[in-house]
């Protein structure tokens, strides 16, 4: 690689916009740290006229990003478009084929096509870097690939979505409803103003878990359906009850090996208040790794936003400039094998159920009898009457039970007309 490095940025949304500013400001600092002089020679966006923090040099602007790849002596591209398919995938795969290094924060792309793209990168002896795809400014992927490279990791879990963590934290502190707090998150830029669905339904965290699984266990990215639940059904009532029981509700992404089988899941959890993960609040992310011989490692920081994401992108840039040509997933693709998924139905855990019912004799016994038929025993029970409306909330904490029996009970509860809505289920962690 020459001392003068030609760079392109494709996609000028929040992240791309911030990144271009950073590249313009920190060129001298980068040169001091790497001995390389960066040269931004091409940018691409849908709209050249959109208001930005910098003036676009029309001489380096390309409406069609694929035309950028025709530039001779292009060394590195930043793909900041987003989405798993379409133009994002075309740009990345063509860049790799043309022996151009790629840096991207695109978790959707990597979680879906990472295996294929890593093979292209390895074949053409260039880097595919995606530190920014998981947990923003936390160097979690580099920690796994380099800092903990000789450790046998058996479990990774944590808070991987800052939007959900902010909403749950704010519901507890402000005592406001989910919808009100969501609106505030949107106004602050923590949630998408139009459609925050991918954050709220667990998909965002799920894509990150898939990447973490592959890196941690040296396996190909799993394609199997996994347990994925979001926070859309969490009400303030659940936050309040959890607090009374000395728990907090957190959306966790979890991946682990159980009898050498892969168990990935994303769902709300009741976590004990005195645990580390329960006290990570606001938009912060936290990742906890369990391995041998290191034991438990904890990393925490801002998980989203242009600043944190740009920090990770710049870290990848400096790694390439220093000549660190490495396998995208830490090991050669020939050493990454597929892995059998753990049977979710066999997963056993204690559960929190909240029932909204008609307040009349016999309803509680119907619920407990249904649970008993599936060998689900009750550890704790709370009734909260609403005499005015002749209704009640019934909260049950179960002893450990498997997913299969719990799901069968939930189906049976649907036919009970005295149960007014689908019961809320939250797993204990």
Could you explain the architecture of this structure?
The chain is an alpha/beta fold. The chain folds into 3 domains: 4-133, NAD(P)-binding Rossmann-like Domain (Rossmann fold); 142-301 and 335-344, Dihydrodipicolinate Reductase, domain 2, CATH 3.30.360; 345-428, ACT domain (Alpha-Beta Plaits), CATH 3.30.70.260. The protein is built from 13 helices and 18 strands. It has helices spanning 14-25, 27-34, 87-97, 107-123, 140-147, 162-174, 178-187, 197-200, 203-217, 236-244, 306-321, 363-373, 403-413, and strands at residues 4-10, 37-44, 61-62, 76-79, 101-103, 128-129, 152-159, 227-228, 247-258, 261-272, 284-292, 295-302, 348-349, 351-358, 378-386, 391-398, 401-402, 424-428. The strands form 3 sheets. Strands 7, 8, 9, 10, 11, 12, 14, 15, 16 and 18 form a 10-stranded mixed β-sheet that branches. The chain has a 6-stranded parallel β-sheet with strand order 3-2-1-4-5-6, with helices on both faces. The longest helix is centred in the first third of the chain and has 17 residues, at 107-123. The protein is elongated and about 80 Å long.
